[in-house]
Design goal:
The chain has ten helices and four strands, in the order αααααααααββββα. Strand 1 and strand 2 form a beta hairpin. Strands 1, 2, 3 and 4 form a four-stranded antiparallel beta sheet that branches. It is α+β, with helices and mostly antiparallel strands and 218 residues long. It has two domains: 129 residues, Orthogonal Bundle (Ribonuclease iii, N-terminal Endonuclease Domain, Chain A); 70 residues, 2-Layer Sandwich (Double Stranded RNA Binding Domain). 56% of the residues lie in helices and 10% in strands.
Length: 218
């Protein structure tokens, strides 16, 4: 049975948040997932900003990426038992839900909490369910940057280093944007934009890690 740290005044919002697109209903949780994703970014960014007043933007960005990763959100969703009450259809009923599905459920439920009771309630929900990950992110192991984590993976699994390829640069000199893709072991991963090459490489490494996480069993 699921244990969700919020009592809904509008239970239909929770029901919709738990309805996966595979149910093929007229409404599913994708819009709530979109809302929850945006709310989560704000809540965790604000919390890290308050907790670590002396850390630079780059460190805060790396810490936030760890807290809001699919892997972390999937663990939090599992901790609440969301997979037990999720309404899924098709082949998803026959197997364990993937990290991506669990993470999306988490974001959708957060979006439902926001719609039900506002930002303060959403903040309480997020900080309650992610508190252990916010604490853990202080350790060196959990604050590896995406580039460091990807390098460790590539060296350990493939005995190679990831290569960062600049695909495109746009905009005037004072407001450039860069598109970067990671390549490793003969494989190309999804590209990502950044305001600097360093930032683009950071997000490209994050994209590669997401792909690699999806290949691992939950």
């Amino acid at each position: 049975m699921a244990t969700i740290p919020h009592t809904f005044a509008q239970p239909d919002l929770l029901e919709l948040a738990l309805t996966h697109a595979s149910q093929k209903r007229s409404e599913d949780n994708e819009r709530m997932e979109f809302l929850g994703d945006a709310a989560l970014d704000l809540i965790i960014a604000e919390e890290l900003y308050r907790r670590y007043p002396d850390l630079p933007e780059g460190d805060l960005t790396e810490m936030k990426a760890g807290v809001v990763s699919r892997r972390t959100l999937a663990k939090a969703a599992h901790g609440m038992g969301l997979e037990e009450v999720a309404q899924v259809g098709g082949g998803l009923q026959q197997r364990a839900l993937s990290r991506a599905v669990l993470a999306n459920l988490y974001e959708a439920v957060l979006g439902a909490v926001y719609l039900d009771a506002g930002l303060d309630a959403a903040r309480t929900f997020a900080l309650t369910t992610l508190d252990e990950y916010l604490e853990a992110v202080q350790s060196k192991k959990n604050t590896l940057s995406p580039k460091q984590a990807l390098q460790e993976f590539c060296q350990g699994q493939w005995s190679c280093l990831p290569e960062y390829v600049e695909l495109e640069a746009r905009g005037p000199s004072h407001a450039r944007a860069f598109l970067v893709r990671v390549q490793a072991a003969g494989e190309s991963f999804p590209s990502a934009w950044g305001r600097t090459l360093k930032e683009a490489e950071h997000w490209a490494a994050s994209e590669a890690l997401l792909v690699l996480e999806e290949r691992r069993p939950a």
